[in-house]
Amino acid sequence: MTRLKLRDLAHSRTGDKGDTSNISVIAFNAEDYPRLCEWLTVARVAEHFAELLPSHGPAIRRYELPRVCALNFVLPGVLRGGVTRSLALDAHGKALGAALLDLDMPSG
Asked: What's this model's pTM, rounded to 2 decimal places?
């Protein structure tokens, strides 16, 4: 049985500002957007990135953008100091979008 991945329903764009990353998840098809809204919660994203997020500080925020069938997640502190202060291999956090799209989606 083939597993459905988030990447089968959406693509992603990422951005950064300081130590904060934002990850936009954009549905390929408008009819899949309500499904993404229901399933891709702040709690699910926080669980997926639990090892990367700081244990204290502001929580992840989710913004719904129905006109473009997108969700935008803001992850404060995930870049550990930001581009100019981090020794992380992916200081801009561009790989975070790909990592989020690797989530298994429920079928149906």
From this structure: 0.82
| CA pair distance 108, 87, nearest whole angstrom | 41
pLDDT per position as a tens digit, 68-89? 999 999 999 888 765 554 444 4
**Do β-strands 20-27 and 70-75 pair in parallel, antiparallel, or remain unpaired?**
antiparallel
Return the domain boundaries, the chain. 4-103
CA separation for the pair 70, 9 (Å, rounded): 11
Pick one of 2.60.40, 1.10.3470, 3.30.70, 1.20.1070 as the CATH number of 4-103: 3.30.70
Tokens of 30: 């408008």
